[in-house]
Every structure is written in structure tokens, then in C-alpha cells.
Amino acid sequence: MNRLYRLTLLGLGIALSACTLGPDFRSPDARLPDAWALQQGPVRSQPEAASVQARWWESFADAQLSALLQRAVAGNFDLQLAASRVQQSRAVRLSSGAAQGPSLDGQAGYSRARNSEEGLNDPSGNAGKSDYNLWQAGLGASWELDLWGRVRREVEAADAQLAGSQALRDGVALSVLAETASDYIQLRGAQQLRLITEQNLQIAQRSLTLNQTRLDDGVATHLEVAEAASRVASLEARLEPLRLRERRLGNALALMLGQAPGSLQAELGEPAEIPQGPLRVPVGLPSELARRRPDIRQAEAQLHAATASIGVAEADFYPRITLSGDLGLQALQLGDLDGWSAHRFAIGPAIRVPLFDGGRRRGALQLREAQQQEAAIAYQRTVLGAWHEVDDAMAAYEAQQRRHDRLQGAVEQSRVALDNAELQYQEGTVDYLNVLSVQQALLSNEGELLDSRQATSLALVGLYRTLGGGWEQHAGGA
């Protein structure tokens, strides 16, 4: 046992003094600007000192939207799949880490045997002339001395892969939040457009009734009545596609929440206003983007794993030393198995030296190096793509805000024009074509204003999505 003790200490000393092959990973430079480039003019999404709001959906001040987002994170199947992949990565990490320590196995066995009379020595001492029993029990241990850091690099790569799967889960959470909010905004937009169409239909029906009365009185013509009736039919035809769009958007929301089609009709069937966000949005500093955006963190983790894999491939060129030991009991009779004379042991190192493999290890190393180069390029591409997305999202939000202001003024003037046209028509100073033309202009402007409100809210959701805000609130539960 003293020899075993000395060998164990020797192995520990060698392991502690071992080196680690391969390049050490360093976080790459994201190469982001010091400040975001701002558009000229009334920039309302100008960056402020504050960072991106984590619970950005609360800026819309819509309690139903906030509740739907919470339910989507809890019930969305894509997010559940991503969480399952995180658990798989944790299991891989556990398996890789186990290789850093020794393994210990217990065994026990019994066999009934008979050796050849002409063969090797018969352990029973019967020269192969009779059967014998063999009883065995013992413990076996082995430990690979990680002299070159192969196992350490494998664990490092597993850690990086786990971080990558967690970033992927966070990215799915971010997508679920943004897509649920977008579907909800579009649903409210479709409902508001239907209300506007129904209001214009009521106006058109009153105009048709008025023209019919004027025709009976001999004041209006059949042409004016036909034009009014055509207007009524055209508006009625617009309602069905809008109802269909509401149903589809409601089903899309139900799918995001992991629920059956039509399950949200009771709570979302009543029309409500499109949620509007703030005029000014703090977007933080560009340097924060690499920490917030899940896709950038995932790309960095993939680069880390690829870098660690180079060390694994380099270690394969060097010898592997394994310490192994076997301690047990062996006897021909079960009653003799507990005696000191039945004990046995074996201990010693084993070394495996690579000599020739036809270039397999060299090819594996070159593959790992090329994969690291690919991961580095992918990281830079991801960062640059994120930069472009943020710039486009900021510009879109600013443009939609300016468009909304112009259209709001156009709708107000169109309503004044319609009131005057209807009054002049009743007084007989203009014909119905003028009223019809003004009605059409008002409906068009109201539709565009509604579309602008929806587009502005969607642009804000898109801005928050590109900035990578929101997933932090749900990463633990996802």
C-alpha cells in the first residue's frame, strides 16, 4: 500500500504541473461605434443616459398586452424546446467534467468452469480433470492524467456550448416577446380599421337614405342614388376581409401562448385602441449591445467553443497516461472469499503513444483551426448585422413618428371638409359627387393614420427587439 500511496502522489504531482495546449480564448472586440448615428430633424428616439428598458412592453401602458406576454413566455412551445436544449447542454457539461476525476467501478462474479488438460495451467489445481467454481469480488479504478489539458479543453468547450444554448434560449424568449406584441398590435389595428369602416358605412347609408328621399322629392337624380348605393356596397365588402384578419391574428396570438384556435376570442374580441409607446426611447450605448443581444453572445460562445476544441485536437498528438488499479478477492470456494489469502490487487500506469495514423490527427487539427476562423468571421458578421438592424430600427421609428404627425393633420382637415360638403349638398350648392369625393378622402386618410399608428408601435417593438431588451426578465423561467 505504501507503493500505491507513492504512485498516487506522483500522479497528482504530474497532473498539477501539467500544461494546457491550444490558444486561450479572449473575448473579441465587437467593433461597435462610440455613439449611435442620429438622423437629422425631429429625432425622438435619441439615445439618453439610461439603458434599454428591460420590461419595455410596460412603456405601452397596456395591461392586457403585458399579461399576454407573461402567458406567452410560460406557454410558448418554442421557448420550452429552447429550455430543453439548455438542459441537454448541462448534461453534456456534466459528462465532460466527470472525465477530470477518477472513475471507480465495483464488480462481483461467479463462474463454473473447466480447463483443458492439454492447455495452460488450471487455477483449480485439478489439471483440467474436473469442473471448479470461481468466486470474485473487487473494485477497479482508473484515472487519466490530463498532462496536456485535453480534458480541460473539452470541459471549457462544453462550458462555452452551454453558454451558447443559454443565449439561444434568450434569443427565443426575445422573439416570443416581440412577435406576441406585434400580433397584438396588429390585432388592435385590424379592429380599429373595422370600426372606421363601419362608421363610414353608417355615413354612406345615411347618404343613401338622404339621396333616396331627395329622389322621391324630385331633387336628386338616379345617378346620385346609384353612386350612394355603390358606396354602401363597397364599404360592406371591406368588412369581411377585416373580420377574417382579426380571426387569423387572434389565432396567431393563441399559438404564441400555446393555446387552441379561438381560445382568446372572449378576452380579445372587443375592439381596443392600438397601444402607443413613448416619444423618446432610451437606447443605451453601443458598447452595451454585445452584452444584451443574445445572437451576439451566442456567436461569441461558439467562437469560444471552437477555440477550446483546438486544444483538444493538439493534445491528441501527445501520449496519454492512465493510472489504473484493481483490488479484490478471488477464491474457488465461497467460504474462502473473506480470507486475507483470497485478496488480490494490481496497480500501475498505462501509456498510449500515437505513432502513425495516416494524417488523421493532423486533419482534425486543421479542421478545428478552420472552424475557429469560421466562428470568428461569423461573430464579426453578427455584430455588424446587429449594428445595421439598430440603425434601421431607429430610423424607422423616427420616420413613422413624423408620418403620424402629418396624417393626423390631414384627417382633421378631411373631417372639416366633409362637414362642409354635406352642409353645402343639403343646401343644394354642390352635387353629391363632391360629397362622395370628400368621404373617400376622409376614409383614405383615416386608414392611413390608423396604419401609421400601428406602424409606429410595430417600429418601436422592432427597435426594442434589435436592442436586445426584455429577455432578462424571463431567462430564468424559460
How would you describe the shape? elongated
Q: State Rg.
A: 38 Å
How much β-strand is present in the residues?
5-15%
Strand order of the largest sheet: 1-2-3-4
Q: How much helix, percentage-wise, in residues? A: 55-70%
- Contiguous low-pLDDT stretches (5 residues minimum) are 39-47
Number of separate helices: 10
Could you state the CATH homologous superfamily of the largest domain? Outer membrane efflux proteins (OEP)
- In sequence order, what are the helices and strands, one letter per element? HHHEEHHHHHEEHH
Domain tally: 2
Query: How widely separated are the two ends?
Result: 52 Å
Looking at the structure, the CATH topology of the largest domain is Outer membrane efflux proteins (OEP)
**Extended strand count:** 4
The main β sheet shows up as: 4 strands, antiparallel
Class inferred from helices and paired strands: alpha+beta
CATH class of the largest domain: Mainly Alpha
Family: Belongs to the outer membrane factor (OMF) (TC 1.B.17) family.
GO molecular function: efflux transmembrane transporter activity
Protein name: Efflux transporter, outer membrane factor (OMF) lipoprotein, NodT family
Pfam families: OEP
How do the helices and strands line up, and which of them pair or pack?
Blueprint: H1 2-16, H2 63-75, H3 77-98, E1 103-113, E2 132-145, H4 150-216, H5 222-256, H6 265-268, H7 289-292, H8 294-315, E3 320-331, E4 343-352, H9 360-427, H10 432-467
Helix pairs in contact: 2-4, 3-4, 4-5, 4-8, 4-10, 8-9, 9-10
Description:
With 478 residues, the chain is α+β, with helices and mostly antiparallel strands. It has 2 domains: 20-100 and 147-318 and 360-473, Outer membrane efflux proteins (OEP) (Up-down Bundle); 103-145 and 319-353, Outer membrane efflux proteins (OEP) (Single Sheet), CATH 2.20.200. It has 10 helices and 4 strands; from the N terminus they run H-H-H-E-E-H-H-H-H-H-E-E-H-H. The protein has helices at 2-16, 63-75, 77-98, 150-216, 222-256, 265-268, 289-292, 294-315, 360-427, 432-467, and strands at 103-113, 132-145, 320-331, 343-352. A 4-stranded antiparallel beta sheet has the order 1-2-3-4, covered by helices on one side. It is a lipid-anchor. Belongs to the outer membrane factor (OMF) (TC 1.B.17) family. Its main location: membrane. Residues 97-127 are annotated as: Disordered.
